[in-house]
Amino acid sequence: MTIASTTQQICFLLLGTTLVLGSLGVVLLPNIVYSAFLLAGVFLSVAGLYLLLNASFVAAAQVLVYVGAVNVLILFAIMLVNKKENLAAIPGLLLRRLLSGAVCGGLLVLLLRVAFTTPWALPGPVPVGEEATIRIGEHLFSDYLLPFELASVLLLMAMIGAIVLARRDVFSSDVITGEPADQGLLEKTRTPLLIDTSGRDTPQLETTR
Amino acid sequence: MTDAAIPASAIPLQAFLALAAVLFCTGVWGLINSRNAVRVLMSIELMLNAVNINLMAFSNYLDGQLIRGQVFAIFVITVAAAEAAVGLAILLSLYRNRETVDMERFNLLRW
Predict the structure, then answer these.
(1) pTM of the prediction?
(2) Which of A21, A87, A187, B83 is the most exposed place for a label (fewest CB within 10 A)?
(3) Which residues, in sequence order, are bridge partners of residue B3?
(4) Can you tell me whether residue A195 is helix, strand or coil?
């Protein structure tokens, strides 16, 4: 470890405060654009925690993948769907929030109790520190080779799946039957396929529950 | 028992575990209570990051030589990136059909 222990503790406290406040902001702020930018701050502070844990490679991967890719993707999605809409009031929303808050608080107490009462086998082996990147490379190409290759297949599948789900190109004819395609549906001059019935009073679904 | 063992670092392992627990519970609360579908995806990312903090902390404190936790965290990051891409594509497709991102109105699969 190259930096002094007091500096480490100060860094940990700062990063932890940023993490907790940022995550609360992500969940609680009414404006979702602020939430997305706070989420970037949360990801960056998690990367800082990784640096404190002697994992520079994973910290770099965290910054590149989460801040560089996932957060930008979320921002794009927000900008594509940010129609201002007035959310309909739900009966019992406060009760639901309180109940779920109680459940999450109970989960937190349980996790904290497990963390503080388990006799961890400390101190463990000395951390490898700067050699972590070399060690990760050895793992990825020896005993974790199959998951590594499967991860590449998974990424390819996710890429193709995302393209298929989100694209909006227009076929002149149906791929299977060869009939002329329904251009009105694609151009949104027709009503959507899934007719929204929740705005009206449709109690027939409610009785089945 | 835990106090008898002297931690190798200036920060105890339990501090990281507690931080990850707080982050995870915040994510769970946001997942349940969000009305906006994008915020639900953001809450899932929070929970995945909490799990990653746990993995990295255990990797550093209990498995310092064979850092298997770090390798696993890299796989979790990979799967999270794929999940975010597919989730946001599904969200865009839903928005195109329903003209809303309100989670309460995505009730097509409700019994």
Answers:
(1) 0.82
(2) A187
(3) none
(4) coil
